[in-house]
Design a protein that fits this description.
single chain, 641 residues, mainly beta, Copper Amine Oxidase, Chain A, domain 1, Protein Transport Mog1p, Chain A, 4 domains, 8-stranded antiparallel beta sheet, 46 strands, elongated
Length: 641
Amino acid sequence: MKLNVIRRMIMLLLPALLVLSLLPAAAFAADAGTQVEVRLKAGSKTVKINGASSTVEAPFVSSGTTMVPLKVITNAFGAELKLENGNVITLTYNDRKVVLTFGSKTVKVNGAAKAVAVAPVVVKGSTMVPLRVIVEAFGAKISADSVTKETVIIGVRAQSAGTGGTSIDSDYGKTKIGDSYYGWSLNYPAGLVQVLQSDNGDYVKWADTADSSKVAAQVNVITEHVGDDTLTSEEQRDLLNSYYDEDEITVDKRTITVNGLAFEKQITYTKETKMYYEYRGIQKDDIYFIVIVGLKGTDKSVLNSYAGLLNSFTPSFNQADKSIKNITKVKDGFITFKDADYGFTVKLPADWYSDRDSTTPTYVNETDVFSFNLSSLAAGDTLENWAFRREARVREDFISSNVRNFVTTPLELKDGKAISLSYEYTFGNNVWLTFNEVLLISGNYRYSLDYGYLSSTSAKSSAAFKQVIATVDIDTAFIEKNFGLVEDESDLVDRSKRVTKRSATYGYSIDIPTYWYGVQNNFNKDEVYYNYSAGDMVIFESELDASSYASGLAQYANSSDSIAQGVTIKESSTVTINGKTAQKVVLHAAKPERDIPHTLTYYIFNTDNGSMVFIFAVYDVHATESNLKIVNDTAQTIRFN
């Protein structure tokens, strides 16, 4: 099942956490420093602590390892317990620290790694851990009672014994799970561990193992903002289909009603992983909720065991229901976004979310956008020089009437002194945007924090910008360790530098500025496509000769559709470039339907098979003297063999 949402997600634990259906305190009573005797037997739910019996999840033996409820150890020995990084359990006993990780067969005792045969796992709401490695780390002795067949552990309670910690105990009594911000809840997926949760909490996954290659059971809850319009059944099904794996086959598709609510239901099967999935989808207001259950099995009936869980899902969260564990990422109106790949952390208001299509940390809401980038520091460069070049480049790329209000101010960030360069620009229709470039230099790298918003929302967005930028935390030590040379592809680029491109297939060459980006840069292909700061360049072969192609452009400009979009012919002439005659046609679109105003300059050269067409597009807002010269100079380098 394809889940694009899992990119840059943080590994989290979930252990049932019914993990600590706390045993009666009397059963574990013992003074710090006093002897403790624990008696238990595999398969038996009775455990004796200093002779007092209590009921627990039955210990079991797997691969020669005795697995016992974690709460037996913490409460009997007075070890302190806390959860770290979402899926790491740390036990503290006197001067000993034992660290266990869900899905990992490595246990660390005071930093020394020890291998175990079985990793910690959740069974029916109880966290089960390997017994021997922990209690021996506590200095306890393990033996067998030949008469009662019990395992006997003799040790000493911690000198400053705690209560066993509260990090996991806090889930005692929770039978449901949900998110108060997105507004959903369902029955607790007992026996599964929460292995993933996105930065903003819009995707959560539980599974029987953190190793994705070995998952045999999983539950996923996904929330997507889809707008205020009600999705049709077909649109809902298309949305569910977008989460399919390439080999996923639909074997059942229908609309169902559960507890008075209409859901789209789809059952699928994957050939490669032999998994059956059931998808449920429902819209409430502007959010579409998707619940996905996946299980290995021989047929779709394997999903029947999760029918109760699926039927328990509701697109609402009852704050008064104390049986619901609230896993929302929203704290005091903010979400902490962490990008481990870039060592980047920021707190953003609850209506923000990650741009999943961006390769660098980028976040958006309805009116604002915020992004983070880094590049290597050039020798001798300074923050002031960098800010000066940024302003100069913006002025070079925008005509003067479309950019205004440049302001440069010093700014103090958590990671050092920065400079904020702010300005406004417009693409027309009197809609202005405000852009803030916060520039920081630390060590061998430069960091750019870019925050943009509609100027019409300036009061709210300006306040949000100040609030957000104050929370930015960059792990510069991580960057220094994990990144090498990262060149800035725009700041220090020499725009006068060119490279000659040749087409053996079509018999021409052209000198391209090296800063232009080749989307399709194989000049022997049917079409070449480059984009640059001012617009785009396209090259292709036409079956029409140059004169016929130019006539077609004139007809197009005079069509009712083109007139409605303000298309006019600014020039139609014959020119000679490097000894080769071409038809030159210049069209201007003043109010294009799906674009901003721009000029298209066509150079059409006759060939034996028709003509070669070179099109240079320049947006009006970027039609500066500098950009026009670069484009015109490029056109003048066209040569034919």
